[in-house]
Write a structure and sequence with these properties.
Blueprint: H1 2-17, E1 19-22, E2 25-28, H2 29-58, H3 65-91, H4 99-111, H5 114-129, E3 137-141, E4 146-154, E5 158-162, E6 168-172, H6 173-178, E7 181-183, E8 191-199, H7 205-217, E9 229-235, E10 240-248, H8 256-272, H9 290-308
Antiparallel strand pairs: 1-2, 3-4, 3-7, 4-5, 5-6, 8-10, 9-10
Length: 316
């Protein structure tokens, strides 16, 4: 054992002699290896501690998903800070010697890392006020269009939102803090959906309402304890406009698909019961005038030429 310690000490001495000196500081191979070893141990300790904290919070059933995630992030941040301070102490670095470095680091945060720390604080605030949680269905207007999907994860920098076509958008936390966000499951998961339908003016509106309610009630995912309703929304240029209003409690499964299912059932029921869906049409009224009579005469003459193949002046 003593021989092993002696060999280790001799190896350390040899590695410490290999290097160079700058002013009062001696930089050697052993010093560089020592820094690398301590850094590796710091990262390993921090990752292991963060993983243990994650497992511990996920076992606490009294906390919901957002509270577990918030506790996990705060404990992980504290573990990383503790690991870095322990590494500095092991390396024997004086905190007073880091005064200049800390000032430069503060300027870097103020200019270069402003967005990063802003997103970090925004993510913590989102988890604390529980306005957005994993599993929520949200719609975000980021200036380029609406992003609609389910929140899968709230990270340090961004929120992961997965849409119905399995595209995953990473939206920075600051955008969720400063933009208008529609949370479809904030206080309740029940969401109302409107389905517009138009019928011809000679339709029996009472029968139409019965068929619309039948189609809505027969559609899966439509809630039974909140039955659908039909409203007369207006008299259009070509049709009587009605709106079917129904409720679902699983918006993460999509909205367009259930609207499509209701309309397909309405289409089949209308065809079975002789209810017509009108197409846009307009009535054109022409006033009698000399120009109109000349125009109709020219059209009639052209039609006669096409039928007989003989010009009008030769057909007389």
């Amino acid at each position: 054992m003593n021989t092993f310690r002696t060999q280790v000490a001799e190896t350390v001495r040899l590695l410490d002699e290999i290097g160079f000196t700058i002013g009062s500081y001696h930089i050697s191979v052993w010093g560089a290896l020592r820094i690398l070893i301590v850094m590796a141990l710091v990262v390993l300790f921090a990752r292991l501690g963060s993983r243990l904290a994650r497992r511990a919070f996920r076992r606490i059933d009294s906390l919901d998903g957002a509270q577990q995630l918030l506790g996990e992030k705060l404990v992980s941040l504290a573990i990383w800070i503790l690991a870095v301070l322990m590494g500095i102490d092991v390396l024997g670095i004086s905190l007073t010697a880091l005064t200049v470095f800390s000032g430069a680091f503060g300027l870097a945060i103020g200019f270069g890392l402003q967005k990063t720390f802003g997103n970090l604080i925004a993510g913590i605030i989102l988890l604390m006020d529980r306005s957005i949680k994993p599993g929520d269905v949200i719609a975000v207007n980021d200036g380029k269009g609406n992003t609609f999907g389910e929140v899968k994860k709230i990270g340090i920098r961004a929120v992961s939102v997965t849409t119905r076509d399995n595209r995953e958008y990473l939206i920075p936390n600051e955008i969720l803090m400063t933009s208008q966000v529609e949370n479809w499951s904030y206080s309740s998961r029940e969401v109302g959906i409107s389905v517009p339908v138009g019928v011809s003016y000679d339709s029996d509106l009472d029968r139409v309402q019965e068929l619309l309610l039948e189609a809505a009630k027969a559609t899966p995912r439509v809630l039974e304890h909140r039955p659908p309703s039909v409203l007369l929304s207006g008299f259009g240029a070509s049709s009587v406009d009605l709106t079917v209003f129904l409720w679902i409690d699983d918006p993460e499964e999509g909205v367009a698909n259930i609207r499509s299912e209701v309309l397909k059932r309405v289409w089949r029921l209308f065809r079975e019961n002789g209810i017509s869906i009108p197409f846009p049409q307009q009535d054109l009224h022409l006033r009698d005038s000399e120009g109109l009579r000349l125009l109709t005469s020219s059209i009639a003459a052209g039609a006669g030429t096409k039928e007989t193949g003989i010009p009008p002046e030769q057909d007389r």
